[in-house]
Amino acid sequence: MMSSVSITEDPQSTEAVLPLDKEPIFTPTDSALLIALAFTGAFTNMCVMLTLVSKKSLKMRSNWILVIHQSFTDFTSSVFVFFSYVTIHFQQSHVTGTLGVVYCKLIWSEALCMVGFFASSLNMTCLALERFIMVVFPSTYHEASLFKVKMTIVFIWTLSIVLAIPTGFSSMIDEHDFCQYGFFMGSMHLHQIYIILANCITFYIPILLMAFSYSYIFKVVRNRNRMLHPEAGPHLSKFSRSHMNLIMTSALMTTLFVVTWTPNQLYNSLYSYGFPLTYNDKWYSLSLMVVQLSSCLNPLIYVIKIKELRAAIMSQTNCLSRKTQVMDLAIIGRSTMDGGSYM
């Protein structure tokens, strides 16, 4: 995902020049749809995240931490998109003062949104690599500490912020106090290199790593089952099902990631290679909505595949139902007593 602003080059300058009467980034309908998707993604991921965290048996197991963190990154990216596009809708691009500079570089440039999306992509990659180590090198995996998993999370967010910084620094305020998007370090070629590098780190390389990891995982698990199942009996079958369910959950999320992110990343790649595309195009806004859709659908995968999550949700639902019944009985009892006092 890159900034949604069209760039044109002045032949007498290396900086970007945008016409002041340019079309808005998104139409009101596009903005409303994106904001609605962001709100849905934030709400559903918050529910899943809080439910998983409430299960003490899950949040302290290293093989679940990155799953919970994936829900957190999707929640964060959705909040960032919601906040950014609601702000852009009301503020537009005319700004003043120090807060205006912060607004242009952090929100209008979409740098804040990119941090969340990058973190989601990188966590998905780490999740695939973790599953790979868990299956292929089980002894090494069991030696991994919670500290190492937490350091992985720190690395994810640090790299996401670093990758988004050039986008923020590329935005500027012109003499008319309008936000405009320029080239990184004033160079169109450096900016194209940055886009290609960011796309490779957050999409193309992750796809290769995830495809290799899950294909190798399924191959190893299939071979082990063929070799050991006759001797191990139902115990191995149960062990394999529990691990395969966790692996399948991650694999489904990866498939969704590839399907929903590919249009946007291809658009950015074609733009960086000089194709006559603009970020005010209808297809770009649609591709960004599809990216946001992945954050909305991941919670559905959690509910379908994670038995513990379904049980926790059912437990909370039953608890709320019982509380509602108790409150209703209390209200009825109080009404009866009040009615009796007037007789």
TrEMBL record:
Taken from the record, one Pfam family name reads 7tm_1
- CDD domains (alphabetical): 7tm_classA_rhodopsin-like (cd00637)
Record-annotated membrane-spanning stretches: 32-52, 64-86, 106-130, 151-173, 193-217, 244-263, 283-304
| CC terms in the record's Gene Ontology section | membrane
Keyword set for this entry?
G-protein coupled receptor, Membrane, Receptor, Transducer, Transmembrane, Transmembrane helix
Please list the GO terms describing molecular function: G protein-coupled receptor activity
Compartments it resides in: Membrane
Domain G-protein coupled receptors family 1 profile per the UniProt entry, residue ranges: 44-302
- Give the Gene3D superfamilies listed for this entry: Rhodopsin 7-helix transmembrane proteins (1.20.1070.10)
Protein known as: G-protein coupled receptors family 1 profile domain-containing protein
UniProt source species = Capitella teleta
Recall the taxonomic lineage recorded for the source organism.
Eukaryota, Metazoa, Spiralia, Lophotrochozoa, Annelida
